[in-house]
Amino acid sequence: MVGLGARAQTTDPLGDLLESVTKPSALGDAPLQPANASHRLSDRDAGLLRQAIEAARRANVNGARDAIAQIGDPLARKTATWVLVDCDADAVGFYEVDKARTELAGWPRAPRRQAAAERLIETSGKTPQQTLDWFAGSEPATAQGAMALAAAYRGLGRTADATALIKHWWRDKSFEADTQRTMLARFGDALTADDHAHRADVLLYGSQGPAAREMIPLLAADQQEAARARLALRAEARDASELTAALPSELAQSPGVAFERAAFMRRKGMDVLALGQLPYFPHEVTSADQGDRIWDERKHLMLAAIHDGDARAAYMAVADTGLTSGSSGADAEFAAGWIALCKLHEPAKAAQHFAALEKIGTSPVTRGRAFYWEGRAADARGDKAAADAFYGQAAQYSTTFYGMLASEKIGRRLTLASDPIITPQARSAFEDSDPIAATRLLYDYGERDLYKVFVLNLDDIQTTVEDEAQLVDLARGYGDMELSMKVARAAAQHGFILPQRAYPMREAPDGGAAEPALVLAITRQESSFDPNVRSGVGARGMMQLMPSTAKILAKRIGVSYSPSQLDEPEYNMRLGASFLGQLVSQFSGSYVMAAAGYNAGPGRPTQWTQFCGDPRGGSTDPVDYIECIPFSETRNYVMRVMENMQVYRAKLAGGSIPITLSSDLKRGAYGAPITAQPTLADSGSPVGR
């Protein structure tokens, strides 16, 4: 598959025989010491802090207030206030929330405080001018805020401004049915039949079912029939076909009805008929919910066409979608470009889509992907100078999959930079900030869940690579390897690359056919090197082994077994490396297929060769194989593992290597029979997913 795909399914016919690896979470080994001594409270203040937090959790606002008022330590008092407002803002009252909004600027979850204040502002007694001044020219973040501002506009005689604001929220925003009723009662005189039709159309695509149904009586009679038919098709109601057949032809072919009919047909296995509805699909998207659902359906139709070998239909499914922003827009433009270039061999058309992807993309991964494929399209047109220029731009993102492929094309080595040196001044500024001090306070006094909330939200507002590095160190200093790696990964998405902190090192056990760098790459992806991780289905440790799988592996390599040993890093990695090596051998040396099998199940990579081609050194470009993987989780996993492996090779070699990613992707004997491995060859997931 291309773009976004369905998540990997986890049916496993061999049950407990082959379950193994899932997702990371929890605490890590080799903790560092905190940079500074933590903030210490008196026993009295420590008790009051706990009392305030517990009261806030129970929605006991007065109890929390009483405890906060008695806290002597300023930091503890601010921390308790943050918890109260974060938990119970609507019960606290406008002025208390608004004061916290100002005094806790720079603290985590500021948008929640803004939203709470907006919901409460009409209880504040503010005059219309005071309300207008409070918003200070900013657009409201909530429907309640929009109504408050519109009422203020009306109170000041600015009727046109009030009407424009309400129309914008009514037409383009999704919110729950009770708020919808309130807005209609207060501002219905500003809304037209066209506004109601537009809102109903948007809601019928999204998840606000009650709100959508309440819109139907506001529509014209024929529009009501179309809306009921759409709801019936979506619910697969018994009368869905009857309601649809009764529609006049212009409504039967309207975008909303055509979309739901296609989705209905596709779910019933009528892919060809569903593809026939594409010309009638909407080409203008006005809300995120609408866009996500339209992309999800187009993606399914694209996959069906690719499986049937109809590249032209696959392209039609993902071209001209009306999606111009966000992850859905990026995925749609990439999918259209990839099909145009690799399936239809139309590089000029592909280049247009990759250029659109470049404009949409903001993360290093997406921008590297866009520039690389713009280079591929230029290469296909015979314009080497343009191709090299695009590859040079992609190579700026040197630790990403496509940045590495681009670097290799223009002869650049992978050379890992050092992480930033934290100066005493930078460390003091970081540690002296109230939000960081509060983070440490929450950890030290047992509020580990709130501590994690602080770390993850503070990551979004750090403005320098030095502060991101120190936030990684803070979490790692408490032994929280998984959390520290979340921060490091998020920092990379913000453009702050930490090559040393983001790629932890430890000695890799013998993986047989799997080299040490691949073992480390898989471990980073599975657990972030956190030995205490346990998944929801029971997978454990560094390489996320299910106990049943581990028992088989231990017997196979001749070592003792007990479930508790899976929490020991060396033991877990020894078994996991053995399993990974078996997968590499099973796939005749292919690292791509081994990584895919580790994530999605050993049977699936071979199944995918039927419509994606074989990546092992034959006629299929292995990059095309990866982009064709129908599970987005697995596709992303394979790319991350292969890029991780290059970084770990560089670290093992002292920091710099020639990039060999393209040849690594082609590893394996093309057309070689799959090695018989009865316990590793089922079509389901062997890895606990």
Describe what you observe in this structure.
The protein is mainly α. Among the domains are: 15-27 and 505-680, Orthogonal Bundle (Lysozyme), CATH 1.10.530.10; 43-223. 61% of the residues lie in helices and 1% in strands. It is built from 36 helices and two strands. The chain has helices spanning 43-57, 61-70, 74-92, 94-103, 110-120, 128-135, 143-155, 159-172, 177-187, 193-205, 209-215, 221-235, 240-245, 249-252, 255-267, 271-275, 288-307, 311-318, 326-343, 347-360, 364-380, 384-394, 401-409, 424-432, 434-444, 448-459, 465-477, 481-493, 516-527, 547-557, 569-586, 591-600, 604-612, 622-628, 632-652, 661-665; strands at 413-415, 656-658. It has a two-stranded antiparallel ribbon with strand order 1-2. It is globular and about 75 Å long. The two termini are 19 Å apart.
